[in-house]
């Protein structure tokens, strides 16, 4: 008996099944953006406890008004200058008396390191656009990340973003902390 | 006439569509890999701002989302509204929303809960600050401002 030729299998319905599955996935899923700038909010202020006094040299005041204009320590400034000014403020390389003081802290993994006591005080207006607020946050975060990169290069020979050892990461984070304090927004500037 | 008979009937060769399902499967796999199942329908327009210093949200299951933006349905006005899960809410509802999200998670995971604020870039800071105050009151300190990663053009 000659072997019968098996009936040819029509593959035309495969395309239909594939189209159906594709349409299903197109409809039910989203290419969601899951990136963002992470922050830790401070605990709410206890009205009975007075907030600790901070020396004027340790604070960098940044104001943004409802027209998205920037005021850095009283001087009008541009977004592009913010990162450099913040870096100088936080690192205080020449130990100038009008810039923040540094405290020697013993950090596990790094030893005795001078840590800046500088705090960046950010104040918005209720009419500031969210985009401007994020750009300011972005520049401040970029300044901190660059300082962390530089310290990590000096101490470990690797950039902070490429570190994998948890102890080293925590040590650099403690040495260059993200100290951004946000005040209640008021109506500064014309609304 | 037989000398000029056409040599067999020349048909146009049929275009083989055997590879069509393969192309569709490739597209399908691409979508399966690069997207996430959308859990909530968005009722507000969200155009997130761009930033360079962004970090990926880890563990999507431990993230609660708060959407703020102008409603997609023009009849509801142009003022930015807050959307929690599937419905519009007011700033005061955020406390109970976060508490519900906490109840829904395990005891162990509660410390790692993050709140992702997906805010349209043109929203004014007033409403965002109110939301942050409520989050501080209820103890949800880990937040993330949802932003798109800006491609560096150096």
What does this structure look like?
- The complex is a heterodimer of chains A (191) and B (154).
- Chain A is an alpha/beta fold.
- Helices cover 35% and strands 21% of the residues of chain A.
- Chain A is built from 4 helices and 9 strands, in the order αβββββαβββααβ.
- In chain A, the strands form 2 sheets. Chain A has a 5-stranded mixed beta sheet with strand order 5-4-3-8-9, with helices on one face. A two-stranded antiparallel ribbon of chain A has the order 6-7.
- In chain A, a hairpin with a 2-residue loop joins β4 and β5.
- In chain A, α2 (79-91) crosses α3 (130-156).
- Chain A is elongated and about 95 Å long.
- The termini of chain B are far apart.
- Chain B has helices at residues 20-34, 94-103, 125-138, and strands at 36-37, 50-51, 55-56, 63-69, 81-84, 87-89, 114-119, 142-146, 148-149.
- In chain B, strands 6-5-4-7-8 form a 5-stranded mixed beta sheet, covered by helices on one side.
- In chain B, α2 packs across α3.
- The mean pLDDT of chain B is 80.
- Chain B has 154 residues and is of the alpha/beta class.
- In chain B, α3 links the parallel β7 (114-119) and β8 (142-146).
- Chain B is built from 3 helices and 9 strands; from the N terminus they run αββββββαβαββ.
- β1 of chain A pairs antiparallel with β1 (36-37) of chain B.
* Average pLDDT level of chain A: 79
Strand order of the largest sheet of chain A: 5-4-3-8-9
Q: Please give the alpha-carbon distance between the first and last residues of chain A.
A: 95 Å
Helix content of chain A: 25-40%
Précis, in short:
By secondary structure, chain A is α/β, with parallel strands linked by helices.
């Amino acid at each position: 008996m000659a072997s019968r030729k098996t009936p040819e299998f029509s593959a035309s319905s495969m395309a239909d099944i594939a189209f159906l599955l594709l349409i299903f996935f197109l409809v039910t899923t989203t290419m969601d953006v899951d990136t963002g700038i992470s922050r830790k909010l401070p605990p709410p202020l206890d009205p009975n406890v007075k907030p600790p006094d901070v020396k004027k040299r340790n604070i960098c005041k940044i104001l943004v008004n409802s027209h998205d204009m920037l005021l850095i320590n009283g001087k009008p400034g541009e977004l592009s200058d913010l990162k450099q000014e913040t870096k100088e403020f936080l690192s205080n390389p020449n130990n100038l008396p009008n810039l923040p003081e540094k405290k020697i802290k013993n950090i596990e993994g790094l030893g005795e390191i001078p840590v800046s006591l500088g705090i960046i005080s950010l104040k918005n207006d209720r009419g500031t656009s969210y985009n401007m607020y994020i750009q300011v946050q972005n520049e401040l975060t970029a300044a901190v990340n660059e300082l962390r990169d530089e310290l990590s290069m000096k101490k470990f020979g690797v950039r902070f973003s490429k570190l994998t050892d948890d102890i080293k990461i925590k040590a650099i984070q403690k040495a260059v902390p993200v100290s951004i304090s946000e005040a209640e927004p008021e109506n500064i500037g014309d609304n | 006439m037989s000398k000029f008979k056409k040599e067999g009937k020349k048909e146009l060769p049929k275009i083989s569509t055997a590879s069509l399902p393969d192309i569709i499967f490739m597209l399908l796999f691409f979508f399966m890999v690069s997207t996430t199942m959308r859990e909530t329908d968005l009722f507000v327009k969200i155009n997130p701002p761009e930033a360079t210093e962004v970090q990926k949200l880890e563990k999507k299951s431990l993230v609660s989302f708060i959407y703020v933006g102008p409603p997609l349905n023009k009849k509801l006005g142009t003022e930015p509204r807050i959307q929690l899960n599937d419905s519009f809410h007011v700033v005061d509802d955020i406390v109970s929303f976060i508490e519900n999200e906490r109840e829904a998670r395990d005891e162990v995971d509660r410390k790692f809960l993050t709140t992702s604020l997906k805010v349209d870039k043109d929203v004014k800071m007033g409403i965002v600050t109110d939301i942050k105050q409520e989050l501080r009151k209820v103890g949800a300190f880990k937040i993330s401002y949802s932003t798109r990663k800006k491609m560096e053009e150096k």
